[in-house]
Amino acid sequence: MKKYQHILDLLPYGPSFCFVDDLEHIDENGATGTYTFKESASFYAGHFPAQPITPGVLLTECMAQIGLVALGVYLLSLKGKVDESLKIAFAESHVHFEKPVWPGETVKVVSRKIYWRMGKLKCEISMYNREQERTCYGQLSGLIRP
Amino acid sequence: MSRKEIEEKLKEIIRPYVQNEAAFENMTAQTDMLRDLQINSAHLVDIILDMEEEFDIEIDDDTAEKMLTVGEAIDITEKLSNEKN
After folding, report:
1. Which residues of A touch B44 (CB under 8 A)?
2. What is the CATH number of the domain that holds A52?
């Protein structure tokens, strides 16, 4: 059984589009989690054929799944009202990219809540590689309702 | 704070989120923030938070959800500011 298994179980993603492996810590103010971009992932064949590199949109998605959705599920669960009928929508992302993420790399996502109000969760989220270098960061928000 | 002052400050708060500049220039009390100004509904929360900070008021979620037009936003701000003083 993984840490925060009850939160992982409520993430609405199927295996082909889940970018969360583990959640290390979650509290009311933020979340930390990890994901390994598998070398065998199909998108590396096209991005790019001679030089595979993880697409920025997927780094952004990974930041959103750990930093917004997992945290949002946790926040809703504190109020005791979350199940599989969860409704989520991505609202905003303003992400700055600093370092590439290569196939097979494990990244850590650290999210800090800016606000959670009227179903909208906004966070400052950073992603780090194994060398603790920041690969990207930015403010993201989404709508999350039970 | 006068109603005119509230209106001017509110205009500055909503300006960054407006998608329809023409409607913004011709704004009246009846202007609907979502339908007319085409503000993304997810940004209404940002507007509420900015209003709370600018006017030093607390807008509860039920009140916030009823705030659809510019006039309603001014009414709510005026009422909450007066209650505070």
Report:
1. 118
2. 3.10.129.10
The pLDDT tens digits of the residues spanning B5-52 come to 999 999 999 999 999 999 999 999 999 999 999 999 999 999 999 999
Token pair for B38: 């085409």
Q: What is the CA radius of gyration of chain B?
A: 12
- State how many domains chain B has: 1
Instruction: Identify all chain B residues contacting A143, using CB atoms and an 8 Å cutoff.
Output: 42
CATH number of the domain to which B67 belongs: 1.10.1200.10
- What residue numbers bound the domain in which B71 lies? 3-84
**Contact yes or no for B42 and A115 at CB 8 A:** no
A47 belongs to the catalytic site: yes
Q: Give this prediction's pTM.
A: 0.93
B83 CA: distance to closest CA in chain A (Å): 23
CB contact set of A124 (below 8 Å; sequence gap of 6+): A111, A112, A114, A137, A138, A139
